Amino acid sequence: MDTTTTQGQLDLAFVLLFYALPLVGLVVFGGVGIITERRHYASIRQREQTGRRIPMVPVRTHDPDQVVVESRLVSASVVISLDYFKRFLASLRNIFGGRVRSYETLMDRARREVILRLQAQCPNADMVLNFRLETSSIANTRGKKGAGGVEVLAYGTMVRFAAPGTTPPPLH
Is 40 in a helix, a strand, or coil? Predict the structure, then answer.
């Protein structure tokens, strides 16, 4: 057997292992990430269309003519991670500069999901006062720049008003 042929085959195997395998991994993980994101967006759109919309306002007060019969603090949070393909694209964008669009869809999904979760906690609410959204990025391990994911926390005061023309029960 010719040793140059064997060496050439080994060289080709190493090239495929070190260059082609990561590219195949990026394509596979990119496909999985796209499918996961599309399913999540479909779930969000379906719940937004079928769910009851509760007004969420950033002010602390309400109409003084309305009588409050129930109020309590409500909060919800969500953590969404970047998939490997988006993380790769974001690192390329950090090298060349510009907007990181993969983070924009991540933030959009997180904001919409946390609002849906907050509304699910107070289905009988008439409104949520003093509504706030807090965001924080979850950094990669080993002190690298960029985000591995994002957490969004939503909170506010759920308020339910007495029906017009009725006498509300006394508060205890």
Answer: helix
Cβ neighbours of residue 102 closer than 8 Å, sequence gap 6 or more: 82, 86, 87, 89, 90, 93
What tokens appear for 118 in the block?
A: 């907050």
- pLDDT tens string 47-67: 999 888 899 999 988 888 888
Q: Phi and psi (nearest 5°) for 76?
A: -150, 155
- Tell me the three state secondary structure of residue 154: strand
152 membership: H or E segment, kind and range = strand 147-161
Tens-digit pLDDT profile for residues 86-111: 888 778 887 888 787 878 888 999 99
**Which contacts of 45-50 are long-range, i.e. CB under 8 A and separated by 24 or more positions?**
47/116, 48/112, 48/116
Number of H helices and number of E strands within the chain?
4, 3
- Cβ of 123: how many Cβ atoms within 10 Å? 10
Strands (E), 8-126: 68-81
